Amino acid sequence: MAVVVVEVLGLILAILGWCLESSSTNSTMWRVHSHINNVVTSSSQYEGLWMTCAANAMGAIQCQRYKTILGLPGYVQACRALMIIALLFGLFSILLSALGLKCTKLGSMSDQAKGRLTLAAGILFILSGVCVLTAVSWYAARIVQEFNDPFYVGTKFELGTGLYLGWAAAVLVILGGAMLCGSFRRTSASTNTGYSYNYSGQGQKIYKAAPTADSGSSKAYV
Predict the structure, then answer these.
(1) What average pLDDT score do residues 176-189 get?
(2) Which one of 78, 93, 115, 133 has the fewest beta carbons within 10 angstroms of its own beta carbon?
(3) What does UniProt give as the signal peptide span (predicted)?
(4) Cβ contacts of residue 27 below 8 Å, gap of 6+?
């Protein structure tokens, strides 16, 4: 029962993390730049992996997709690829873990086969979290580097909401994947503690001594 609870809880955390991964990937606020000229007029600019947006004090927001892919910085293209790979890993992991749960039935699949599916799903979840963690940390490191560089002549940005969503997603997905892998180890340990004793009596014979005649038991009476 405890193994089932761990599996279900790990799957729930991993699915929640995968949803945050999707939100982080589609977020337009990976980095934010705000500047205020006076009390009346203010504007802000924020960028994501797929588009850049600008908003003014009146609440009007204008977004525009990047017109080129090869013209983007190398780290942005790498972060795009890592986030897409993370989403694909997470999707496959959800399918495998749903089939590998002990509370689900799929034909005549044994518990050992289900455990292997759960282990594979947990490993893929952990890889998905590592990809997200690498992407958001790399992107954040570049923002901090450009912001603290006194010779940088471009627009200086700060960390946006999309990065925090990515960090939270990575933690949940890795934690969920670790719980799924741990449930497989607990299942293997419980199956190995059982004892089995097979006795085969073939080829063995039991010899018994012939009963001795009791001379005193047979008496003749006249």
Answers:
(1) 77
(2) 78
(3) 1-25
(4) 48, 160, 161, 162, 165
d(CA 3, CA 115): 11
Give the list of residues 6+ apart from residue 191 with CB closer than 8 angstroms, or none. 111, 112
Confidence band of 62 (pLDDT split at 50, 70, 90): confident
Into which CATH architecture does domain 2-28+69-191 fall? Up-down Bundle (1.20)
Task: Give the pLDDT score at 138.
Answer: 95
Name the region of 104 (left: φ>0; alpha: ψ -120 to 50; beta: rest): beta
Predicted pLDDT at 55: 83
The pLDDT value given to residue 220? 44
Query: Which phi and psi (to 5°) does residue 206 adopt?
Result: -110, 120
Whether 174 and 126 have beta carbons less than 8 Å apart is answered as: yes
Domain range list for the chain: 2-28+69-191
Q: Which residue has the tokens 């180890």?
A: 185
Confidence class for position 106, pLDDT limits 50, 70, 90:
low
**Distance of alpha carbon 170 from alpha carbon 172, whole angstroms:** 6
How confident is the prediction for the chain on average, in pLDDT?
80
